[in-house]
Amino acid sequence: MSKQKTSDSPGPGPGPGPGSVSSSDSGVTSGCVSMKSDWSKDSPMNFKPGPGPADEGSDSESSSSCESIKSDGSMVEPIGFKPGPGPADEGVSQQSSQVLRGGSAPQHQTHLDSIFMLLEDNMVTFMKEELKKMKKLLSPDYPACSESEREDEDEEQRSSRESFLRITLDFLRRMKQEELAQRLWSKTFAGVCQKKLKHDLKKRFQRVCEGVAKQGESTLLNQIYTELHITEGGAAEVNQEHEVRQIEAASRTADRAERSIGPGDMFKGPPGRSQPIRTVLTKGVAGIGKTVLTQKFTLDWAEDKDNQDVHFIFPFTFRELNVVKEKKFSFVDLVHHFFTETKEAGLCSFEDFQVIFIFDGLDECRLPLDFQHTDFLTEVTESTSVDVLLTSLIRGKLLPSARLWITTRPAAANQIPADCVDMVTEVRGFTDPQKEEYFRRRFREEEQASRIISHIKTSRSLHIMCHIPVFCWITATVLEKVLKSREAGELPKTLTQMYIHHLVVQAKGNKVKYDGGAATDPHWSPESREMIESLGKLAFDQLQKGNLIFYLSDLKKCDINLRAASMYSGMFTQIFREESGLYQDMVFCFIHLSLQEFLAALHVHQTFINSGTNLLEEKQTTIQQSPQQPQLHHLHQRAVDEALKSPNGHLDLFLRFLLGLSLETNQSLLRGLLTQTGSSSQSNPETVQYIKEKLSESLSAERSINLFHCLNELNDGSLVKEIQWYLRSGSLHPARLSPAQWSALVFILLSSEEDLKEFDLKKYSASEEALLKLLPVVKASSKALLSCCGLSERSCGALSSVLSSQSSSLTHLDLSNNDLQDSGVKRLSLGLESPHCKLEALSLSGCLVSEEGCASLVSAVRSKSSHLRELDLSYNHPGDSGVKELSAAVEDPHCSLETLRLSGCGLSERSCGALSSVLSSQSSSLTHLDLSNNQLQDSGVEKLSAPLEDPHCSLETLRLSCCGLSERSCGALSSVLSSQSSSLTHLDLSNNDLQDSGVKRLSLGLESPHCKLEALSLSGCLVSEEGCASLVSAVRSKSSHLRELDLSYNHPGDSGVKELSAAVEDPHCSLETLRLSGCGLSERSCGALSSVLSSQSSSLTHLDLSNNELQDSGVKRLSLGLLT
């Protein structure tokens, strides 16, 4: 018997999809006739084709939304089916059954027809309602997905709906509507897939093991998670410095004002940014908390706490991707491979959804990411190598609507081209308050937590390292054990002591946990000694190769088996997801780079003590081969030399540990592990002397600072104590300081939080030589005061390098009154143009800058990356042409300059024309302008006044002191003050020949209800009692905002002051500051002012009566008012 063929089109992806309908899919019982049987073998149905490509109205691109067919949102009112025969018709029903069994009952044919007519009505109603919902689901404005199910819908109803969905998908395919079928499939099952994905991610990330990735007791992530300090900014470029140096730099900037970002705000741009953020690159040193941050982000989404506009989050790690680097996948297959929920749901299209892909650990990537020569893919179903999939995704060729979040250590940041990254963020670890919060969460007992926090603050090296969360965990573990121990001695103060204690804690814990020993048993057994030796060899071998992660084969070379490694999970962690069953290779690393460096140093020390072999020598000799007994200081000197040779300081911490291990007090902690100990009594003084000799050489600041840390490890603070004595005694003579003492001064200042807030060079030596020696301190400071220090072009070159440094913290720089000239400003401008420059305020007042130097600053001010808000060029010679160039730069939309000072620059009316253009510019950010001590004349002020009334003008402060102004200027400025669109709040007209007539005209503006002025200076303007009287009316005005009035060096007379005093007592007067210095006042004025002071309605808080002949009697009268 021939069968009618059904469509054999495959579904849209793995698992059930919109392919052919089978009897099991249809939901019909086994008693029903198959659609493929003879019964259905009528003429084939002629399906009408769907709309072609030109008129696919229903196939338009959908919005990013999805809804399960099980969701509330996809449900309409329950379908009202017409009832079939009731219990009274059971006989008829039985007779109908006979008909179905083939019995002869023609008399019941009519009733059977009615049943089927009713059935047809119900089925048509059902189908219409379902099709209506499907159409609604595919509409562009359908809301975001919801996976909640209807409570009143039973399994049969759900099964019927799903079966009808499959039939609909099959029909769409037969109508050649493949894309519509795929979209309908994805959107109906996306809600179910999302729910399953959230459930699995919640299960995967809700618990963490601190410090270790597999073993140990797990804790709820939400219970122990402490907010990290995450900042926006920086560039996606390489930073090859040793990460401890980067941590030290970060520790100095942790409390600075930067835009902090919360874990859920990674894709939310800064205020004012309109373009969406697609790709975020997050940098941070090892152990700083990048992985936990991505886990928290994912967990918050899975628990419906944050980012609920996102439909799917897929977190990958590069460690996972390394394992499949030899395989080929389509992007869909890659997602299915790691997230089987998507495969089960047949999710093969991501374009309709808001999706975030997280790629954690770019620095561990072993895929050849080539962004220059790769043939990029655009189709998610096309197969290729994993590296091509990633580069295509990051380039935006594949899934351009998807969001990407990539984390990396700084050294690998430049693997992603800058034009592929929309925002760079940096995890700075814990700020000082966050460190405290961590320890208080870790230790519920207040006294214990406070003692631990107090101890960490006493050791700068420990306090700095506690910026790293994993080091906080190590510190907490060690100090908890030491405090509980019966033989608890002094708490560890140095890094070496901390790691020695950590090693002991691990060994003792393993002895009890794995070997069944008692807590009081000796913790070093032959097996544990052998294990530590093997771990040390592995650490040293891999450190020399620059490897931070390694494989099972690397362990085997050092005779380490998997069980042994797992016993030391507090130092060494196995990183793979065992439950997924995906990986053939196992990846390992130490829980932090610093621990690897400690174990490497321990291995080098042990090897030398036991055999005399110096592992740092290129040609190694043993005691037997050496003609003379090798000394420990030879090993140390070799280590110092090797560390100083390193271009990026990768042996800095290794050197600190190696020297620290030579102390007998530290060796006593390792008694039982070190079968032999070296004598430090002879070796260490020679090592100290060698380090001091090196400090006398021309070393970089970073190298000098590390050598001081080394001296700390050797318990030698002699150099630091010398400089501290000089500083305390005030006998610091820079000319007498040796290079080593200069280095010691840098070390001390870098350890001082107070000095780094504001560094004033004059405290130490106002000289160029001192500046160049203390440049690392300038680099680490927020504010540097270098005025009047005899600096030249040479200093500008050095400061330019500071400004362009990625680790610079400098935001305010005062170079005023130095002979920098145009050549120096040109060199400085190169640093100002750097994308790393963070400078916000620059003072070059009195630095002999001409039009040429001004032109070089213009380029820096216009730079897109510039943060400069304040520029002081007072008492230079930019000329009208220089001001014209500068004005054009301030109008540039990229310029962020808010304050410009051009006092005493020999400017004329011509400059006012150029500046007036700035004031009326919509793109200008200028709010403060100082043009004092220039001969602008009334004509210049008139040119400035017109734009001040422009609605686009944002100027709030205008200083026109000593500008040759008269009554005419007051008329122009009065018009500005009474303008509704004026923003002016501070006006300085001091030392101009305004006279009473000018003040009268100005007062008209002050009385205007539109006037916003808060501070007015009329010092030295030849104002008499008459002018004072006109001001009284303005001060008393209900609409007045005036808070500050300066009438110093005028002639108001006692009667003028009496009128003014009465006005200040008026409840409508809001004056808080009144300056009457040098006004020729007598005792009589004091009587009037005394009344003001005692008045309940007065707002006066500041009164200046300097340079007046008040006499004792006048002061007595004032005192009475003060006593009231």
UniProtKB/TrEMBL annotation:
<dbReference type="Pfam" id="PF05729">
    <property type="entry name" value="NACHT"/>
</dbReference>
<dbReference type="Pfam" id="PF13516">
    <property type="entry name" value="LRR_6"/>
</dbReference>
<dbReference type="GO" id="GO:0005524">
    <property type="term" value="F:ATP binding"/>
</dbReference>
<dbReference type="InterPro" id="IPR006553">
    <property type="entry name" value="Leu-rich_rpt_Cys-con_subtyp"/>
</dbReference>
<dbReference type="InterPro" id="IPR032675">
    <property type="entry name" value="LRR_dom_sf"/>
</dbReference>
<dbReference type="InterPro" id="IPR027417">
    <property type="entry name" value="P-loop_NTPase"/>
</dbReference>
<keyword id="KW-0433">Leucine-rich repeat</keyword>
<dbReference type="InterPro" id="IPR051261">
    <property type="entry name" value="NLR"/>
</dbReference>
<dbReference type="InterPro" id="IPR001611">
    <property type="entry name" value="Leu-rich_rpt"/>
</dbReference>
<dbReference type="InterPro" id="IPR007111">
    <property type="entry name" value="NACHT_NTPase"/>
</dbReference>
<dbReference type="InterPro" id="IPR041267">
    <property type="entry name" value="NLRP_HD2"/>
</dbReference>
<dbReference type="InterPro" id="IPR041075">
    <property type="entry name" value="NOD1/2_WH"/>
</dbReference>
<keyword id="KW-0547">Nucleotide-binding</keyword>
<dbReference type="Pfam" id="PF17776">
    <property type="entry name" value="NLRC4_HD2"/>
</dbReference>
<dbReference type="Pfam" id="PF17779">
    <property type="entry name" value="WHD_NOD2"/>
</dbReference>
<dbReference type="GO" id="GO:0005737">
    <property type="term" value="C:cytoplasm"/>
</dbReference>
<feature type="region of interest" description="Disordered">
    <location>
        <begin position="250"/>
        <end position="273"/>
    </location>
</feature>
<keyword id="KW-0677">Repeat</keyword>
<feature type="domain" description="NACHT">
    <location>
        <begin position="278"/>
        <end position="412"/>
    </location>
</feature>
<dbReference type="Pfam" id="PF14484">
    <property type="entry name" value="FISNA"/>
</dbReference>
<keyword id="KW-0963">Cytoplasm</keyword>
<feature type="compositionally biased region" description="Low complexity">
    <location>
        <begin position="60"/>
        <end position="74"/>
    </location>
</feature>
<feature type="compositionally biased region" description="Low complexity">
    <location>
        <begin position="19"/>
        <end position="31"/>
    </location>
</feature>
<feature type="region of interest" description="Disordered">
    <location>
        <begin position="141"/>
        <end position="160"/>
    </location>
</feature>
<feature type="region of interest" description="Disordered">
    <location>
        <begin position="1"/>
        <end position="106"/>
    </location>
</feature>
<protein>
    <recommendedName>
        <fullName>NACHT domain-containing protein</fullName>
    </recommendedName>
</protein>
<dbReference type="InterPro" id="IPR029495">
    <property type="entry name" value="NACHT-assoc"/>
</dbReference>
<keyword id="KW-0067">ATP-binding</keyword>
